[in-house]
Amino acid sequence: MCGIVGCILKDNEKAAPVLLECISKLEYRGYDSVGIATISDELNIKKGKGAIKEVNNELDLSDMPGNYGIAHTRWATHGKPSKENAHPQIDCSGKIAVVHNGIIRNYVTIRNELEKEGHVFKSQTDTEVIPHLIEKFMDKGLDLEKALRETIAILDGTYAIAAISVDEPNKIIATRKDSPLIVGVGDEQYFIASDAPAILDYTRTIFRPDEGDIVVLEPSGVTVKNKDDEIIEKEIFTIDWTPDMAEKGGYEYFMLKEINEQAEYIQNTLTQKENIEKIIEELEDINRICFVACGTSYHASLTGKYLIESLVGIPVDVILASEFKYSLNALNDKTLCIYISQSGETADTLDALKMAKPKSKTLGIVNVVGSAIATEADYVIYTHAGPEIGVAATKTYLCQLTAIYLFAALLSLKLAENNDDIDLTKTTDLLRQLDRVPEFIEEVLGQSDSIMKMAEKYKDKSDFFFIGRGYAYPIALEGALKLKEITYIHGEGYAAGELKHGPLALMDEGVPVVVVMPPGEDYDHTMSNLEEVKARNAEVIAVTTDDAEIKEDKADDIIGINPDVSEIIAPLVYIVPLQMFAYYVAIDKGCDPDKPRNLAKSVTVN
Ligand code: M6R
């Protein structure tokens, strides 16, 4: 995963400062090197290893001539982070520059052939074959656009590519396959970018090219040609995100801002009620639901299983997107597959959707409007969480959960019209409680001082366990994921009932165990697990109701939540202190919670 941008401005305007600003907004996609290329009379390139700020301090990236150019922020896949491997990559003549997000699987074969033909390579990247292929085809007399078309016919892999050439001034060409790319249409200024936050300061009018489309940006406008080389019109979207939504707004890190915004954004998701009702109207006859997702979105899906099976009684499976192909034979036209993804671009999830589409009904629950999963699925529910920049999912997770809660509740209401066996007591109770979730979250956010102290106390531990039963189990999994991804501390989420089947052997003096125990039918049972670990001298952090009667001999620390938060609604509230805990541990350990090592916001490779 990397971020790419390109822009073409009016004749007298300088592109480099704009490119620098835009690419800085994509740093969450990759942050090990950065580069910009512009064309004035010649190709100008500045690039280097390191975060954008560091490279800019050294090279002054905005000081480059030319009214158009391309830029890149890298998350290394092929070739370690270095100046040579940073993009833009160029051809032998030094006239063609390319930025690329994705992976070219057959690059070794292509490179060997090109080397035999005399091309000289300077990097270890898979990307470098692209400018050399374009060069080869332009040397044969093709123009830049046709050369790119010939090039992509040879590539096997995933890509969003933008290219410029000194021989065709005032033109940026771009294309994509299985990697995100948007085109921004401004006032006499045109953009391409991997994601919308890059260009929000310049335009909110965008479209998304389809696979194989070739986009040509010129000072006079944008042209798109499809695979058959025909000029086509694209559907234009207006993004309802404002530029300040993608700023830190006074917070030290995006993650903290995003945690604090959760109460507000949940309300946005709740406005999806009518859309969800319409979708449910059209979903006749489903007898099985499969959630398909990765990471945090997978944890949201697990909550969906508990909810739908309990409220509606339809069997629900939750499948990791990367394992989904093994379940294909069990799908049929009565199966609804629900793909959860904040980015809407996760390669594993998108591939699973494409595989299942011919056999089953498909619904995407997605944050990014017009993203690949949103476009590909039969139905889509947008979570409207605004842009999430921190790599660790927080507000998008709560908004996914909100969408799932609404879906489950509205599905049970619909099915109950013709099925007396569906008892709506839980649904009614759930809908009543959903309205109070923002208030419960605000109460938790008010506990930041005590959670900060707890983080300071536990920051040097090397292994954590998170346990819970029923609705609290996915909370435990998500709490552990948050901790490990931003603090690099090992955290393991377990169903509390599974402890005795293995992990109890690891319980020892001082091992921290976070016990998630909302009030409800599992409370007493989880309490007995708490006692089991305490008896082995583990250090217990109980996340439970603030009127719980847990004495100091049982829990070393307690995070108290409003007792009105019942277990069914707990996933929407109990995760918040665990997000905050992970955040403050990361800060105490000097880790950057927005940019965890080796991870990127949208995983467009599999
Ligand atoms: O964009 P998606 O929701 O499809 O992303 C799925 C996972 O890559 C993502 O949730 C990942 O686990 C996050 N880093 C979690 O914080």
CATH class of the largest domain: Alpha Beta
Spatial strand order of the main sheet: 3-2-4-1-10-9-11-14
* Bound chemical compounds: 5-amino-5-deoxy-1-O-phosphono-D-mannitol
How would you sum up the global shape? globular
Uncertain runs with pLDDT below 50, 5 residues or more?
none
Mind describing the biggest β-sheet? Answer: 8 strands, antiparallel
- Measured between the Cα atoms of the first and last residue, the distance is 10 Å
Q: Count the beta strands.
A: 24
CATH architecture of the largest domain: 4-Layer Sandwich
Please identify the oligomeric state.
Answer: single chain
> CATH-wise, what's the superfamily of the largest domain?
Aminohydrolase, N-terminal nucleophile (Ntn) domain
Describe this structure in words.
With 606 residues, the chain is α/β, with parallel strands linked by helices. The protein has 3 domains: 3-246, Aminohydrolase, N-terminal nucleophile (Ntn) domain (Glutamine Phosphoribosylpyrophosphate, subunit 1, domain 1), CATH 3.60.20.10; 254-435, Rossmann fold; 444-588, Rossmann fold, CATH 3.40.50. The longest helix is centred in the last third of the chain and has 22 residues, at 395-416. The mean pLDDT is 93. 5-amino-5-deoxy-1-O-phosphono-D-mannitol binds at residues 294-297, 341-343, 346, 349, 391-393, 485, 599, 602-603.
Question: What's the layout of helices and strands?
Answer:
Elements lengths: L2 E6 L6 H10 L8 E7 L3 E7 L2 H8 L8 E7 L14 E2 L5 E9 L2 H10 L12 H11 L4 H11 L2 E9 L6 E6 L4 E4 L4 E4 L11 E3 L6 E5 L2 E5 L11 E2 L15 H7 L1 H9 L2 H10 L5 E6 L1 H17 L4 E5 L14 E7 L5 H10 L4 E6 L5 H5 L2 E4 L12 H22 L8 H10 L2 H9 L2 H11 L4 E6 L3 H16 L2 E6 L16 E6 L5 H13 L3 E7 L11 E5 L9 H18 L18
Parallel strand pairs: 15-16, 15-17, 17-18, 18-19, 20-21, 20-22, 22-23, 23-24
Antiparallel strand pairs: 1-4, 1-10, 2-3, 2-4, 5-6, 6-7, 7-8, 8-12, 9-10, 9-11, 11-14, 12-13
Helix pairs in contact: 4-5, 7-12, 7-14, 8-12, 9-12, 9-16, 12-13, 14-18, 15-18, 16-18
